[in-house]
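Kindly go through the entry underneath: sequence plus fold tokens. Please state briefly how this chain folds according to its tokens.
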Amino acid sequence: MARAARSTAPGTDLDGVRMTSSSNQPSNDPGPAITRDSASHSEKPGFPRFILGPHGLRSGWRILLAVAFYACFVYVLEVALASSPSLYVWLKSLYQQGALLTPGTLILSESIRTAAAMLAGLAMSRLESRTFRDYRISWDAATLIRFCQGVPLGFVTLALLMASMHLLGRVSFAGQGTLSTTAVRIGVLYGIGFLLVAFFEEASFRGYLQATLETDAGFWPSAVVLSAIFAVIHSQNPGESALGIFMAGCFGLVAAFSVLRTGGIWFAVGLHAAWDWGQSFVFGVPNSGVMVTGHLLNSSFHGPNWLTGGSVGPEGSIFIFPVLVFWALAIHFMFPARSSAS
């Protein structure tokens, strides 16, 4: 995304305090999103080191500012939507399903979160003199290729997992849940909704937060911290279990590995969206403890929760661990590490 012309020097805010360094690295660069500045920019007289570091304003302060922007934009968007009486009545009717998600509630809630995150990212990119590419969020032809590589990996591995559990007698399929006349429409709507879910989570955790935190902490320490936070956030879902929360954190590490090897978030977005869509719509099983209405199949689990996932869904099953290992191996061989000489 092109940046607007500014009267200040690149990488500085209006009062001259350096926010961060900027770069124009290629989208498939496996290294850090932001390169290190020279020592001459690492300190500014009058500012303590916990505020300014080698890359300007410390990553923690920038993340707090980004979160504040996000919260403000969410509030503004929700107030704007609720200001219309007729829209308010429609929104209220959407949420009468309680804990069950509908295509409408999913798309609405995720659209608000995604729009707020994009606006916050745009605000931070202006303040930091960075582009969305610096956050590993690009919009070029490679984006579609990486996304299309992630989608089949996510869905096919889920289908194999469900087939294996069926052969072991741990899940049964009791017929069609949605009539064929409406299945395509509902499937498309859920596809849009879970694409928004995947993009929001990957752009936030493996995009901006990862690219910012690693300027102070490095790639893998940042990935571990953010994956732990990702897991804790998933603990708020109804029906989650300790194993499901742990596996959510492990997925965060696998997704971070894909970002390191591909240079962007889109492979993880495709894999993430296909997995969620397959669980929720196609197989009709819980997705991180959340059920949806209008799923294609009616599935039932049989056996202990640690084998089936129970109320969490397949993500809470011990069988998800070999899936995560397989994903990591697939990423390793699909996207070999680039030598430092290249």
